[in-house]
Amino acid sequence: MLKIEEVLMNQYGPLLSLAHLAKILDRSADGLRQGLYVESDWSSRINAAKLRVGKRVYFRTSDIARFLGGE
Q1: Which residues contact 3 (CB under 8 A, 6 or more apart)?
Q2: Contact at 8 Å (CB) between 37 and 19?
Q3: Which residue in 1, 28, 45, 59 is deepest, having the highest Cβ count within 10 Å?
Q4: Three-class SS string for 7-60?
Q5: Which residues contact 35 (CB under 8 A, 6 or more apart)?
Q6: Greater confidence, 70 or 52?
Q7: Is residue 61 within 8 Å of residue 8, measured between CB atoms?
Q8: For residue 49, which of 27, 69, 28, 26 has the smallest C-alpha distance?
Q9: For residue 8, which of 70, 69, 71 has the smallest C-alpha distance?
Q10: What are the residue ranges spanned by the domains of the chain?
Q11: pLDDT in tens, 12-49
Q12: How many Cα atoms sit within 13 Å of 17 on the Cβ side?
């Protein structure tokens, strides 16, 4: 898990934009946005990492790394 977090932090920093997260998950940004509105286990875990800064939406890199690591 630490390895995933290190790679993501080095490449994207502490916050991921929706476009960056879509690229990591190999989805389109629009497809990811729609998927996050549907209630499911994975969408609730990703939405828990969501952080709003004004009108912009970001995701905490450390939380996404844990999700990708299977925690």
Answers
A1: none
A2: no
A3: 59
A4: HHHHHHCCEEEHHHHHHHCCCCHHHHHHHHHCCCHHHHHHHHCEEEECCEEEEE
A5: 27, 43
A6: 52
A7: yes
A8: 69
A9: 69
A10: 4-69
A11: 999 999 999 999 999 999 999 999 999 998 899 999 99
A12: 9
* CA distance to 6, 22, 26, 46, 63, per residue, from 55 (Å): 28, 18, 24, 18, 21
User: Long-range contacts of range 31-39, CB-CB < 8 Å, 24 or more positions apart?
Assistant: none
47/41 Cα distance (integer angstroms): 10
Token code pair at residue 38: 């549907």
In the numeric block, the tokens 């990708």 are attached to 68
Q: Record the tokens describing residue 30, joined without a space.
A: 């629009």
